[in-house]
Specification:
Blueprint: E1 27-32, E2 36-43, E3 46-54, H1 61-80, E4 86-91, H2 93-101, E5 107-109, H3 115-122, H4 149-160, E6 165-169, E7 173-174, E8 184-189, E9 197-203, E10 206-214, H5 219-235
Parallel strand pairs: 1-4, 4-5
Antiparallel strand pairs: 1-2, 2-3, 6-10, 7-10, 8-9, 9-10
């Protein structure tokens, strides 16, 4: 493949051209299994290339940690060399978490079944507005108390830190439950017709329902945000 602007041959399809500073790919879709990742490179709705990265998983211990980190690093390197506008991932949670940790890009999860088609289906949808504000500035309301102490605050801030979240409004605490879980657990529930969500934070028998106002415009786009938020809680080891 040659650069679409200056015609310089590219080492791999979709690579960013260092000769004329031109991107030849605007989106990367990474389908990740524990031992293999397939990266598809899109320019608009056109598939301009594909790369496969493989590994031999190690069983636990330090060797397993190093092997996973190296595998994720190779996947991340393939993404960085494209300098895309958007990155989408699907598949194995451990691999995705390791890849995310190695990238500065915002990474969005899509369904594991037909991930490339899922991304292409989104092309016709209006992009969601981004709220460029620190997480702390998005938290407020009549109720200032958050259950779960530090972990409860971490769950709230994890959700508030998402770029498509406008505001998180802590709700009243219901301490009359009979939960037997130990530690703080959280999950984001289904979107309403306006695309807004609810964050449930549990600490033992106590439950707090927090309103999450998003930039989504309807239920379908709200569900996209919900998936991203629950993935973020999962990575923070807070998911119920």
């Amino acid at each position: 493949m040659k650069c679409r602007r200056c015609g310089t041959p590219l080492e791999k399809p979709g690579d960013y051209c260092l000769v004329c500073d031109t991107a030849n790919c605007d989106t990367v879709v990474a389908a990740c299994d524990r031992d293999h990742a397939t990266l598809t490179f899109l320019d608009g709705e056109e598939k301009v290339g594909r790369t496969d990265v493989a590994t031999v998983p190690e069983d636990g211990g330090e060797a397993g940690v190093v092997e996973l980190r190296n595998f994720a690093g190779r996947v991340a390197d393939e993404i960085r060399r494209k300098r895309p506008e958007d990155v989408f991932v699907a598949g194995d949670h451990d691999v995705i978490s390791a890849v995310r940790a190695d990238l500065r890009y915002e990474v969005f999860r899509v369904p594991s079944e037909n991930p490339v088609e899922s991304v292409l289906d989104r092309r016709g949808e209006r992009s969601l507005d981004v709220v460029d504000a620190p997480a702390g500035e998005k938290i407020g309301g009549r109720h200032s108390t958050v259950i779960g102490n530090r972990d409860g605050q971490r769950a709230i801030r994890t959700v508030a830190g998402h770029p498509n979240v406008k505001k998180v409004i802590p709700g009243p605490i219901d301490a009359g439950g009979s939960g037997s879980r130990t530690g703080v657990r959280a999950k984001v529930t289904r979107a309403d017709d306006n695309g807004n969500l609810r964050l449930l934070v549990r600490d033992g028998s106590s439950v707090q329902e927090n309103r999450v106002v998003t930039t989504a415009m309807d239920r379908d786009t709200g569900e996209r945000v919900r998936t991203d938020l629950n993935d973020a809680l999962d990575e923070a080891d807070l998911r119920e």
